[in-house]
């Protein structure tokens, strides 16, 4: 007996939890990804290249750059709508969602939350349109999970600041027009808006990656870069600044990872129905159906978790621990789903003819960045016990 297959996220009628506006935004982004990203992303991944400037302008026109921020050319959507957009972008590729996330939730968020009115007026409209590309310099070669150990420093020199240091694993760094750089000063951690054509600033691209290949990843080198005090973000002088932005970016990962996992699972289901062994589709074997059922359960739970955190966020009732729970679970389960889907495709699963190995490799990075699996585990552990175990 056979019947019409049901899409994994339709099993629990998850669309019934969404408004018509949410669905319209999601479907608009999905159509863009299907038409513009999916036909070319395997080639971009294979060649290790991405037409960032071209895509940034398109994504700006689509309205997803800083879409959850208010004013200054930003759409001011709900957190849930932004999350759903991230789901569709990462169903295309993690590198595309990272481009949008770094632009909107890191670089733009920093200026929006901690910048002066003049800084907001100067930078945010162009960043929302994609005409200005931003990056976010926090992680350093020796300090990833422990940003408080950063060595990049800013020294006062009259009305200016002199920045020295190195940042690592910076998305969009080599193509950015402006970098939000966090540096140690005599008065705490401060953020600076650094134009990338400044003397002493360089951003060599990192090559030979086996993950996030359809994404520009760079090192930032600041060698006596002089910036005016007017380029300092005036509203924060502590790690609260960058950590606020990171929490915003992590929120997008709750949804983005669901998109990557969904694309893997949909591919595996379609393949298992068409692929025959022993004179029947492999979808008809019990072991295959167990794999598919288990993955569908985890995918739905991940999506429900993401929607719940989004609803809390839209009520201004969410906290960093809840975002950590979402990032911890959804990145972990998405990676497991990608690996299991790869096994269903057998040898075909390791080729770029199908998206699974690309998603699987990308999710290895997503599993690590914006807080490693271990760090988010300890965040949850501290919440449960009241004891910090980071040292």
Short description:
By secondary structure, the protein is α+β, with helices and mostly antiparallel strands. The chain has ten helices and eleven strands. A hairpin with a 2-residue loop joins strand 6 and strand 7 (about 190-195).
How are the SSEs ordered, and which strands pair?
Elements: H1 20-47, H2 52-62, E1 70-71, E2 74-75, H3 79-92, H4 94-114, H5 117-129, E3 134-137, E4 153-157, E5 160-171, E6 178-185, E7 188-195, E8 201-202, E9 217-228, H6 240-274, E10 276-277, E11 280-281, H7 286-314, H8 320-345, H9 356-366, H10 373-385
Parallel strand pairs: 3-6
Antiparallel strand pairs: 1-2, 4-5, 5-9, 6-7, 8-9, 10-11
Characterize the structure shown.
With 391 residues, the protein is an alpha+beta fold. The protein has three domains: 8-129, Acyl-CoA dehydrogenase/oxidase, N-terminal domain (Butyryl-Coa Dehydrogenase, subunit A, domain 1, Orthogonal Bundle), CATH 1.10.540; 134-231, Beta Barrel (Butyryl-CoA Dehydrogenase, subunit A, domain 2); 240-385, Butyryl-CoA Dehydrogenase, subunit A, domain 3, CATH 1.20.140. The protein has ten helices and eleven strands. A four-stranded antiparallel β-sheet has the order 4-5-9-8, with helices on one face. A three-stranded mixed β-sheet has the order 3-6-7. Strands 1-2 form a two-stranded antiparallel ribbon. Helix 4 (94-114) packs antiparallel against helix 5 (117-129), helix 6 packs antiparallel against helix 7 and helix 8 (320-345) packs antiparallel against helix 9 (356-366). The chain is globular and about 80 Å long. It starts with 19 loop residues before the first helix and ends in a 6-residue tail after the last helix. The mean pLDDT is 95.
């Amino acid at each position: 007996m056979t019947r019409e297959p049901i899409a994994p996220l339709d099993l629990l009628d998850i669309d019934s939890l969404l408004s018509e506006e949410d669905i319209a935004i999601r479907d608009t982004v999905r159509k863009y990804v299907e038409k513009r990203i999916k036909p070319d992303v395997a080639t971009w991944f294979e060649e290790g290249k991405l037409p960032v400037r071209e895509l940034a302008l398109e994504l700006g026109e689509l309205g997803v750059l800083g879409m959850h921020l208010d004013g200054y050319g930003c759409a001011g959507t709900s957190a849930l709508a932004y999350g759903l957009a991230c789901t569709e972008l990462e169903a295309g590729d993690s590198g595309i969602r990272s481009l949008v996330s770094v632009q909107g939730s890191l670089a733009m968020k920093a200026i929006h939350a901690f910048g002066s009115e003049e800084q907001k007026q100067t930078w945010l409209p162009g960043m929302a349109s994609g005409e200005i590309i931003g990056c976010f310099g926090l992680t350093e070669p020796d300090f990833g999970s422990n940003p408080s150990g950063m060595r990049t420093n800013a020294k006062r020199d009259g009305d200016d600041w002199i920045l020295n240091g190195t940042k690592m694993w910076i998305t969009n760094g080599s193509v950015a027009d402006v970098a939000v750089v966090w540096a140690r000063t005599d008065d705490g951690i401060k953020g600076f808006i650094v134009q990338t054509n400044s003397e002493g600033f360089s951003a060599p691209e990192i090559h030979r990656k086996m993950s996030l290949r359809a994404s520009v990843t760079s090192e930032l080198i600041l060698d006596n870069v002089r910036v005016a005090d007017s380029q300092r973000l005036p509203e924060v002088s502590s790690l609260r600044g960058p950590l606020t932005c990171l929490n915003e970016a992590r929120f997008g990962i709750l949804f983005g990872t669901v998109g990557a996992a969904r694309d893997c699972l949909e591919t595996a289901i379609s393949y298992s129905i068409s692929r025959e062994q022993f004179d029947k589709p492999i979808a008809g074997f019990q072991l295959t159906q167990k794999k598919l059922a288990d993955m569908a359960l985890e995918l739905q739970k991940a999506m429900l978790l993401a929607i719940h955190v989004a609803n809390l966020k839209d009520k201004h009732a969410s906290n960093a621990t809840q975002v950590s729970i979402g990032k911890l679970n959804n990145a972990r389960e998405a990676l497991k789903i990608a690996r299991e889907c790869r096994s269903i495709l057998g040898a075909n699963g390791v080729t770029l003819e199908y998206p699974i190995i690309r998603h699987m490799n990308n999710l290895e990075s997503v599993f690590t960045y914006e807080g490693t699996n271990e760090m988010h585990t300890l965040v949850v552990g501290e919440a449960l016990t009241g004891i910090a175990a980071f040292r």
